[in-house]
From TrEMBL:
Source organism (scientific name): Rhizobium leucaenae
GO BP annotation list: methylglyoxal biosynthetic process
Domain MGS-like: 1-125
Top enzyme class: lyase
Taxon lineage: Bacteria, Pseudomonadati, Pseudomonadota, Alphaproteobacteria, Hyphomicrobiales
Protein name: Methylglyoxal synthase
Cellular component aspect of the GO annotation: cytosol
Keyword annotations from UniProtKB, A to Z: Lyase
Catalytic activity: dihydroxyacetone phosphate = methylglyoxal + phosphate
């Protein structure tokens, strides 16, 4: 995948926040290719139909692992993953593996809105 690539993932209770984050930062994201897990990607496209978004599988159905593989093959430059710490996740092992890969491969990663807002401001500079 050529160019800059950002991965967007959001747990169910954070999908509205991710769509709003993308809408608020649409100008900064315009030059980026976005990969997102299934429903999150759909919500981002609904909010920002002009962005370049590739939707992968839903997180619990393998989307987290798809993004992890893309991190391992240097296809992803930035990870924004809005985690809901209050809801139990049946695929918690996949979530931990994904964050471990981002740390291992030194990928800038934001796990909440405050960090994502600061990170997005540095992307195009």
């Amino acid at each position: 995948m050529a160019g800059k690539c950002i991965a967007l993932i959001a747990h169910d209770q954070k999908k509205d926040a991710m769509a709003e984050f993308a809408r608020r930062n649409q100008d900064a994201l315009t030059d980026w290719h976005i990969v997102a897990t299934g429903t999150t990607g759909g919500r981002v496209l609904d909010a920002c139909p002009d962005l370049k978004v590739t939707r992968l599988k839903s997180g619990p159905l393998g989307g987290d692992q798809q993004i992890g593989a893309m991190i391992a093959t240097s296809e992803i430059d930035v990870l924004v993953f809005f985690i809901d710490p209050m809801t139990p996740m049946p695929h918690d092992v996949d979530v931990k593996a994904l964050t471990r890969l981002a740390v291992l491969y030194d990928i800038p990663m934001a796990l909440n809105e405050a960090t994502a807002e600061r990170l997005i401001k540095t992307l195009n500079h």
